[in-house]
Amino acid sequence: MVIEVVTMKITTIKEFRDKATTILKSPEPVLVTRRGKAAGLYFPLEGDSIPLDLRMNLQLSIADLVKKSLEQKGLSEENILEDFETFRDDRS
């Protein structure tokens, strides 16, 4: 049995912001903390592109979050389109 040990860097949000380019080039995972609690996790992907199933799941998750946010605020797609039209008309 072979056990692979994976190291993970732990960084604060401030350090992540200040050193993002360097951190994102690293091959190791990074746990980002805010006030000592986990705020996010970065896992570098191998290869040149994001796998299709991962992209689909991310898009579905984001769409679900947007839908819930709009519902909580009592907004609909029609409301947003009307706002865009009003904004566009006001700029003319």
Labels describing this entry:
92 residues; alpha+beta; YefM-like fold; 3-stranded mixed β-sheet; 4 helices; 16% strand
Topology:
Blueprint: E1 9-12, H1 13-18, H2 20-25, E2 30-34, E3 37-42, H3 52-72, H4 77-91
Parallel strand pairs: 1-2
Antiparallel strand pairs: 2-3
Name the helix and strand elements from N-terminus to C-terminus, one letter apiece.
EHHEEHH
Biggest beta sheet summary: 3 strands, mixed
Shape: elongated
Q: Work out the strand percent.
A: 15-25%
Unreliable spans: none
Judged by helices, strands and strand pairing, the structural class is alpha+beta
Largest sheet strand order: 1-2-3
Rg, Cα atoms, Å:
20 Å
Supply the number of structural domains. Answer: 2
Q: Kindly state the percentage of residues in helix.
A: 40-55%
Number of helices: 4
Give average pLDDT, whole number.
87
In total, the number of strands is: 3
Distance between the first and last residues' Cα = 70 Å
Molecular structure report:
The chain has helices at 13-18, 20-25, 52-72, 77-91; strands at residues 9-12, 30-34, 37-42. The mean pLDDT is 87. The protein is an alpha+beta fold and 92 residues long. The protein folds into 2 domains: 1-44, YefM-like fold (3-Layer(aba) Sandwich); 47-92. A 3-stranded mixed β-sheet has the order 1-2-3.
